[in-house]
Design a protein that fits this description.
The complex is a heterodimer of chains A (110) and B (150). By secondary structure, chain A is α/β, with parallel strands linked by helices. Chain A contains three helices and five strands, in the order E-E-H-E-H-E-H-E. In chain B, strand 2 and strand 3 form a beta hairpin. A five-stranded antiparallel beta sheet of chain B has the order 1-2-3-5-4, covered by helices on one side. In chain B, 35% of the residues lie in helices and 27% in strands. The chains are: A alpha/beta (110), B alpha+beta (150).
Chain lengths: 110, 150
C-alpha cells in the first residue's frame, strides 16, 4: 500500500493493493488513519485499481474512515474498483458515503 | 445426494488463514470451470464465513475452523464452515444487515448479507457455548436470483 499527500489539492491518495480481508485490513486501517491525522486532508482517494479481492472487511474499512472523516468535512472517493469489488460496494450502499468513480484511462488522454 | 468430489481441511482460528481458505476454494473450483464472477462470489463467501468463525466464534481465543467443500450433481457447490466457538445467541439478529457485535473493530455487519446474496441457500445451526455450522449451496452456470435483480 502506498500513501501520498498532495499539498496543492489537499488530497490524500491511498493506493490499496492485494487482497483486502479481515487480516490485511487491520494494518491498512492503522496506516491510513495515521496519514489522515497527520495531514487533515480535504479529500481521501482510495484507489482500488490494484486490489484483487475484497470482502466485507473492506466495507468496514471504508465505513470506519467515513466516521472519522465526516466530522472533518472530508469526502471520500473510491476509485477504479474491479467489477466484483464494485458489486460489493453497491450491495453495501457505499455510494451514500462516498463517490465511486473510474479514472480516465491513460491512453484516452491526448 | 451423490457426492462427486469432496475436500476437507481444518486450521487454527488465525486471521492469516482467511487467505488460505480462499485459496482452497479456488483450487477446488477450478476443475468445475466457474466463471470469473462465480469464483469471486464463492471466494468472498468463504472469506466471510471463516472470518465470522475467527472474529465472532472464537473472539481472540484459540480453536479450530473446519471447512468442507463438495461438488454435487448439477454443478452444485456445497460449502460448510464449522467452529466450536461461543455460538450465536440470536441467529435472526446476527443475520440482520448492518448488525454487528464488534463495531469497535470496524466490522460492517454485512457478512451474512453477502453470503446470502452470493449463494442459493444458507443454513445456520448454532448452539451458544458449543459452536456454529454454516452450510451454503451455490449452483454454477445459473445466475442466482438476487444478482439478476440488479
Amino acid at each position: 500500500m502506498q500513501i501520498y499527500y498532495d499539498t496543492q489539492t489537499a488530497e490524500l491518495h491511498v493506493r490499496l493493493d492485494g487482497e483486502i480481508d479481515h487480516h490485511s485490513s487491520i494494518p491498512m486501517r492503522a496506516e491510513i488513519d495515521a496519514a489522515i491525522y497527520a495531514h487533515l486532508p480535504h479529500t481521501v482517494i482510495l484507489d482500488f485499481s490494484e486490489v484483487s479481492f475484497m470482502d466485507s472487511s473492506g466495507i468496514g474499512l471504508i465505513m470506519g474512515r467515513y466516521k472519522i472523516l465526516q466530522p472533518l468535512g472530508c469526502s471520500i472517493i473510491l476509485q477504479d474498483p474491479a467489477p466484483h469489488i464494485s458489486r460489493i460496494l453497491r450491495l453495501a450502499g457505499m455510494e451514500r458515503m462516498a463517490s465511486i468513480r473510474q479514472s480516465v484511462p491513460k491512453e484516452a488522454i491526448k | 445426494m451423490k457426492i462427486l468430489n469432496e475436500f476437507k481441511c481444518s486450521f487454527q482460528a488465525q486471521s492469516a488463514n482467511e487467505a488460505l481458505a480462499r485459496a482452497a476454494v479456488s483450487a477446488f473450483l477450478i476443475p468445475a470451470d466457474p466463471t470469473a464472477q462465480e469464483l469471486a462470489d464463492l471466494r468472498t463467501v468463504i472469506s466471510e464465513a471463516v472470518t465470522n468463525a475467527i472474529v465472532h466464534g472464537y473472539r481472540g481465543t484459540t480453536g479450530t475452523v473446519a471447512v468442507c467443500l463438495r461438488m454435487l450433481p448439477d454443478r452444485v457447490i456445497y460449502i460448510r464452515v464449522t467452529d466450536k466457538g461461543c455460538g450465536i445467541p440470536d441467529v435472526e439478529k446476527a443475520m440482520e444487515p448492518l448488525y454487528t457485535s464488534a463495531p469497535e473493530e470496524d466490522r460492517a455487519g454485512l457478512g451474512f448479507a453477502i453470503m446470502q446474496t452470493f449463494t442459493d441457500s444458507l443454513h445456520v445451526r448454532s448452539v451458544p457455548g458449543q459452536g456454529t455450522v454454516l452450510t451454503m449451496r451455490r449452483r454454477l452456470g445459473v445466475q442466482n436470483a438476487e444478482e439478476s435483480a440488479d
